[in-house]
Amino acid sequence: MSDTNHTTNSEADEPTAKRAIVLLSGGMDSATAAYEAHDRGYEIYALHTSYGQRTEDRELECARQIADELGAADFLRIETGHLEAIGASSLTDDEMAVADADTESDEIPTSYVPFRNANLLAMAVSYAEATDCEAVFIGAHSEDFSGYPDCRPAFFEAFKRVVDVGTKPETEISIEAPFVDGSKTDIAERGVELEVPYEHTWSCYRGNEPACGTCDACAFRLQAFQNIDVRDPIEYAERPADDSNR
Fold first, then answer.
1. Do residues 235 and 211 lie in contact, with contact meaning Cβ atoms separated by under 8 Å?
2. What is the mean pLDDT of the chain?
3. Which residues pair with 47 in a beta bridge?
């Protein structure tokens, strides 16, 4: 089952030199990737997916806000139930608890959604081919490698080959993961340079308001802002003691 919802900016009728699909979840990584694409001269076509994740309402709100801030030419929301139906992730299964952060662990966390990025990229490439966009941007980064196998550079290289083989002969779509060799701290630092409005992003796996401060996503996000000595602008139920006065 799928549901689509387009919101098109009036400026979309004006042709530009470059256009890109951005997988815009509403989180800080995808928001920074969107601003990076914009900084590189791409007109933004935002793609947001609702797949049964716990914090979907907040993520959708943030994704729309970021798209509006960037003057995106189009905002496409795709609602799909297949990842939730497949399950095996604490992000989509209410009977599985979202674990507290363990930033030193090399184990795949329960928040891993099986092969999610392949599903999302496939939709993004379809959207790109249909709209003659030249690139697809995704905010994956190096600190996701151990926990999420579909965030590795090898995965994106392999997916590029799939795109080359599986699209029309004249189609040329690049897969851009600008932070794949960087860290969450690198993303935060670059985002501050690009003036990403992080107050309009959401990373927490547990709830819509406030962010818990203790899940993996919150912990890595807070740590990244601490590393660049900037206070994370969103509200948390819990913050590290050394972050409370920033």
1. yes
2. 90
3. 23, 76
Asked if residue 122 is part of any domain, the answer here is yes
CATH number at residue 48: 3.40.50.620
Q: What are phi and psi for residue 103, nearest 5 degrees?
A: -70, -10
H, E, C per residue of 191-222? HHHHCCCHHHCCCCCCCCCCECCCEHHHHHHH
Question: How many domains does the structure of the chain reveal?
Answer: 1
pLDDT at 2 over 50: no
Give a yes or no: residue 172 inside a domain. yes
Residue with tokens 């590393």, as numbered in its chain: 227
DSSP H or E segment with residue 188: helix 184-194
Cα gap 17→25, rounded to integer Å:
25
Task: Say if 102 falls within a structural domain.
Answer: yes
Look at 33-37, 70-74, 108-112, 187-191 and tell me which has the smallest mean pLDDT. 108-112
Tokens, residue 174: 């690049």
Range of the domain at 173: 2-196
pTM: 0.90
pLDDT at 92: 87
Q: How far apart are the first and last CA of the chain?
A: 45
